[in-house]
Amino acid sequence: MLEISNISKTFFPNTVNERKALVDLSLNLNEGDFVTVIGSNGAGKSTLLNAVSGRYTVDSGNIEVDGQRVNRLKEYQRAKYIGRVFQDPMAGTAPNLTIEQNLSLALRRGKPRGLGLALTSKQRERFREELKALELGLENRLPAKVGLLSGGQRQALSLLMAGFTHPRILLLDEHTAALDPQRAELVSNLTERIVSQGGLTTLMVTHNMEQALHLGNRLIMMHEGRIVFQASEEEKRQLTVPLLLAEFAKIKGAMLDDRALLA
Ligand SMILES: Nc1ncnc2c1ncn2[C@@H]1O[C@H](COP(=O)(O)OP(=O)(O)OP(=O)(O)O)[C@@H](O)[C@H]1O
């Protein structure tokens, strides 16, 4: 469904600042696969997501979605089939619009412009139901400005909006990292629900190994622009945090402080 073949991306090539962010990386996702992506700082995890979303074009290699080559498509052209949630809770929603208007925009994504934000009562009812399922009391606050919500509430809303139109691919980039543990768990559980309900094909970057093991059916570990370890559905079930730390240590050639990795 998503076929990434031999992609490379170098920032500032042939300068002293050269950074090889992706090196001949290949990865295939089948429909409904939920792959968690871990790796040290600067491993290329965000760049991989940016290559898929079209934020960055790759220097070489191929990215195909449903058999169509998308390398040359701009980010806004790919937005039709990609949902994305970032680490920053402020990134996914418009603070000056109400909850209802934000949801309405998400619903209209990829549709012709000029329809305004007016809602039918059926749509409003759908919003209420979906918000109620978040169990954050937002179903009674449809006219409230999103800027008034907490980070966790905004992130939950961003996730709901990203999943709204059943994107072909959902990209989650450390989307729980900026939240306190309780909110992070809430958004993590919500992620599980939205992905499984929609059968969404998902790539999720996280630094939290417990989360990487708990969520998703496959796992990859990146280092210096390459996938250095991957676990299939079957293999992932057998994985534990100590086993993952041992893999990290093997790759880095030294034992690492697990607290740093679990931060
Ligand atoms: N826009 C950019 N311009 C220049 N270099 C970049 C850019 N984006 C990423 N890089 C470089 O590419 C490499 C990979 O960065 P990337 O952000 O993909 O890593 P990451 O695995 O997501 O790291 P982290 O866990 O710290 O967020 C790094 O060396 C980084 O400095």
TrEMBL record:
Checking SMART domains in the record gives: AAA
The residue ranges of the ABC transporter domain are 2-249
- Annotated PROSITE patterns: ABC_TRANSPORTER_2 (PS50893)
Instruction: Give the membrane topology, semicolon-separated if more than one.
Output: Peripheral membrane protein
The alphabetical list of record keywords is: ATP-binding, Cell membrane, Membrane, Nucleotide-binding, Transport
Checking Pfam families in the record gives: ABC_tran
Q: Name one GO cellular component term.
A: plasma membrane
Q: Which GO terms describe its molecular function?
A: ATP binding; ATP hydrolysis activity
Give the location in the cell: Cell membrane
Protein species of origin: Leucobacter viscericola
| Record's keyword annotation contains Transit peptide | no
Tell me the protein's name. ABC transporter ATP-binding protein
What is the top-level taxon of the source organism?
Bacteria
What the entry lists under Gene3D superfamilies is as follows:
P-loop containing nucleotide triphosphate hydrolases
